[in-house]
Amino acid sequence: MPRIIAENEWLFAIDKPAGLIVHSDGRTEEASLAQWLIERHPYLEDIGAWISPQGVSYPVAGIVHRLDRTTSGVVLAAKTHEAYDYLKKEFKERRIKKSYRAYVYGTLPQKGRIVAEIMRSSAAPKRWYARPCDEDDIRAAITEWNVLGTRTDVSGEVASYLEVMPLTGRTHQLRVHFSSIGHPIVSDHLYASDRKPLFGFTRPALHAYSISLTLPEGTRADYSAPLPDDFDPRSSSGTASTSASR
C-alpha cells in the first residue's frame, strides 16, 4: 500500500511499493498510484495527463515522474497546475536530484560514471539497450554511483550495494546502464535473465531512496522513502554476510 511521506501546499511525496504501476499505460486495467491518489484527493484528477500512442488521455494525478512497476520508492505529485508545470520544468532542467539504492552483480570501483544513450531495439523482443556517446550529446543519459558496501549470497556470489544518482531520466536508465557495463541489477528479469536471483529478491533490487529539490517559494526540500523489507539483510533470505545496510 502506498503512503504519504510528506505534503505541503505544493506537492505530495509518496512512498510507492514495488509491484504498483504509477499510472495507467493504456494496455491493462489495474490499480495504479494515480488512482490511489485520486480516490483520496479527487481534485488531482484534473492535474496532468498522459497521452497514449492511440491518443487516449489518462489522468496522472499530478505525478511528475515515473518509476517502473517493480521499483519501490519516493514519487512526487503536484497539488496544483502551477506546481505541476514548475516541477516538470525542474525535472527537465535537471535541478531535481534523485538518489537510489541498488544491488548489482559483482564488485565495482568505489565511484563511477556511465554516459550512454538509451536506445530501443527494433527486433522482438523489444527492449532498451545502451550505446556509448559523448556527454554533450543531447541524447546522452548519465548515471553516477558510489559503492556503499558489498554483500555475499549463500551461493557465494558477491554483489555491490550502491548509491546511484541518475543525472538524466530515461526509460529503464539505471537497469540498462548497469547491464551495459556487465554489472546488471540483481534479480532484474529483463536485463539479468541469465543470472541467479540473490538475497531472496523477486524483483529488480532497485529503490528510489530520496529526492531533493527547491520548492516554488525558494526553500530546499528533501524527501526519502525508507528501505523496504527486501533490502534489509536481516529480513531477506539467502544471505551469508553483509558489509552495508544503509
Map the helices and strands.
Elements: E1 3-7, E2 11-16, H1 33-40, E3 49-51, E4 57-59, E5 72-78, H2 81-92, E6 97-105, E7 111-120, E8 128-132, E9 140-153, E10 158-166, H3 173-180, E11 206-214, E12 220-224, E13 239-242
Parallel strand pairs: 5-11
Antiparallel strand pairs: 1-2, 2-5, 3-4, 6-10, 6-11, 7-8, 7-9, 9-10, 9-13, 11-12
What structural keywords apply?
2 domains, eleven-stranded mixed sheet, 246 residues, 3 helices, mainly beta, Pseudouridine synthase, 11% helix, 13 strands, two-stranded antiparallel ribbon
Summarize the structure.
By secondary structure, the chain is mainly beta.
Model description:
By secondary structure, the protein is mainly β. The chain has 2 domains: 1-93, Pseudouridine synthase (2-Layer Sandwich); 97-212 and 224-246, Pseudouridine synthase (2-Layer Sandwich), CATH 3.30.2350.10. The protein has 3 helices and 13 strands. The strands form 2 sheets. Strands 1, 2, 5, 6, 7, 8, 9, 10, 11, 12 and 13 form an 11-stranded mixed beta sheet that branches. The protein has a two-stranded antiparallel sheet with strand order 3-4. The radius of gyration is 18 Å and the shape is globular. The two termini are 23 Å apart. The model is unreliable at 238-242 (pLDDT under 50).
